[in-house]
Write a structure and sequence with these properties.
Elements lengths: L9 H30 L2 H27 L1 H17 L9 H14 L14 H5 L4 E3 L6 H4 L5 E3 L20 H11 L1 H36 L4
Antiparallel strand pairs: 1-2
């Protein structure tokens, strides 16, 4: 679980709650859909249709919020990441999951810090060691990436002190790296989102068709006077 200071962004909190709600609704939707189709229960199929429609509308609303509030979200995310960097401590087991996630981002995107490696100079542990260590996940040397987390020792620091410019780390900040990754994979992301929306629409159409068939069968079974 994340500490309150780590999830201080109202927008991210709301987003997390929305994802939890959508996940629970998806499980309920699948159960209702299977039960309604097997037993030919119109009420359950109707609930299945309603759940699908709510999920689709939620996804559209989330996409609109992200698009129109992207600058606000970027600022809030920046505050969270900068706070994480300043308080990064490999020995802190309570924050290990969050810190490992950030190490993974820096390793995979080949970036350092949110806007650049200079932000790591504000880390309390590195300041106490005169910046003679640096984050291993930022390193551009393969031998440091074997560990993938924590701090690595700088070789032969001048006068026992150093700055981020002396570190063998990536120059690109993760904000620019993430934005570039999104641009490079925009087609795939839009394709997946479109595919999911089409599947949901097909599910809605099929549930309506089943409801109509059940209604027709019930009508034909009614004895004529």
């Amino acid at each position: 679980l994340l500490a309150p200071t780590e999830m201080s962004s109202p927008s991210l909190k709301s987003g997390a709650y929305i994802l939890i709600g959508v996940g629970a609704l998806t499980m309920l939707m699948g159960f209702l859909g299977c039960l309604g189709a097997v037993n030919e229960v119109r009420c359950l199929l109707g609930l299945y249709f309603t759940c699908l429609m709510i999920i689709l509308l939620t996804q559209i609303a989330a996409a609109l919020v992200i698009y129109f509030q992207k600058e606000t979200l970027k600022v809030e995310l920046s505050d969270i990441v900068v706070d994480l960097i300043e308080n990064y401590d490999p020995s802190d087991e309570e924050k290990r999951n969050l810190q490992d996630a950030w190490d993974y981002v820096q390793t995979q995107i080949a970036c350092c810090g949110w806007t650049g490696a200079k932000e790591w100079e504000n880390n309390e542990i590195l300041r106490n060691k005169s910046n003679t260590e640096y984050p291993c996940s930022c390193s551009n040397r393969s031998k440091d990436l074997v560990e993938g987390r924590g701090f690595c020792n700088l070789e032969d620091p001048l006068n026992g002190t150093a700055t981020y410019a002396d570190w063998p780390v990536h120059e690109q900040g993760c904000m620019d790296g993430v934005e570039q990754w999104l641009k490079d994979n925009l087609g795939i992301i839009l394709g997946v989102c479109t595919g999911v929306a089409v599947i949901e629409l097909l599910g809605m159409i099929l549930s309506i068709s089943l409801c109509k068939n059940i209604h027709s069968e019930d009508y034909t079974k009614v004895p004529k006077s």
